Amino acid sequence: MRQRIRVVVQGRSSRRRPTLAHGLWGAAEVTVTLGVVVLLLVVHQLWWTNRQARQDAEHKVQAMEREWEAPAAGLPGPVESPPAPEPAAGGNEASESRDRPAAQHSAPRWDQAYAILRIPRLGVVAPVAQGIGKAGILDKGYVGHYPGTAQPGEAGNFAVAGHRNTHGEPFRHINRLRGGDEVQVETREGVYLYVIDASLAQTSSRDTGVIARVPRSLVKPSAGYGEPGYYLTLTTCTPEFSSKYRLVVWGKLRSMRPR
User: Fold this and answer.
1) Active site residue 163
2) For the chain, what are the domain ranges?
3) 167 in catalytic set
4) Is the pTM of this model over 0.90?
5) Residue 87: its pLDDT value, please?
């Protein structure tokens, strides 16, 4: 009598289980890896770029201050500008602008840091460079001067831009500035004190009116000025971590003195 041997054949579901488990494990590893990469990118953008840019900007400020103090060691001194008279209370701004002596500046080279901008209320101290390029200026933690606009202390509009997030973010909190807050711009020739006067919370990135000689928004004509003067314009991106719109803060020159 022959003995029968039982043969057990596993079903398809049994064969699929190891493959499914391996697939899920592989997907989990990829997800974790991607998460780590994204986290490192965020840390790089939010921490490392700020740290590096702030250090570079601080070193540049110190280098300019040392250079400007060099005449004390017997080197040739800067060309001095006569001090500006204080605006008369209730006076006509247009007539004051014509009477105010013009500041004297040598034309800065492209990407050259040639001024220091200080905002005491925000604790901001940043170099100002000619141009608004990212790689050579803004990403280094500098404030960029819009080409074609006035220089510090000159009649017209001294207009500058700065990052609001990452790369030193010197203009991170300019939305906190209020009327009467001071902004000081220092160059080799002199020190120029501007006082915050108005702001525009949001406008188009193409609103060139805000940096015009007489600044006035083309998008919101009620925001801005109607007479020639000595203006300061600070611009940055808004909302935070976006470059869709622009935030604008304006000031007027109160006084200037030679170095």
Assistant:
1) yes
2) 53-258
3) no
4) no
5) 36
